[in-house]
Design goal:
Blueprint lengths: L12 H9 L2 H11 L5 H8 L3 H13 L3 E5 L7 E5 L1 H4 L2 H14 L45
Antiparallel strand pairs: 1-2
Length: 149
Amino acid sequence: MSLDKTSVNEPCPVARCVDVIGDRWSLLIIRDVMDGIHRFGDLQRSLNVARNILSNRLHKLIDAEILEMRAASDGTAYQEYVLTEQGQQLFPVIVALRQWGEQYLFEENEAHSVLIEKSTGKPIPLMIPTSNEGNLLSTSTTKVLKVNL
């Protein structure tokens, strides 16, 4: 994976992540690929984004080993963008953003998309960080051990 020059010496994992996936288009591309949209044209239509911006972000996500290109699954000459294992591991990040948005960015009865579990058809429960012992974690019960440079 190639890191941006600003990330190479950055000891904070959050800062490094933001350099790779922190812009609107990258996160929405990842969301759409998770939702089953895999072709350039389909991504462009779904996101209503300029071709050059989409192309740039797709290349960045491929370079970061979040996405890879494969031959189309239907046997046509098209290429598809699919999540790598590393990209699939972003699922909890997308879910956390979705749940935060549902909680704080919509009015009480305002319609919005809902993530459901396929087997039950029910909305997935709120993701809450817990300790190894099962205790709820928050900013008041955790701390970051900073690296001395």
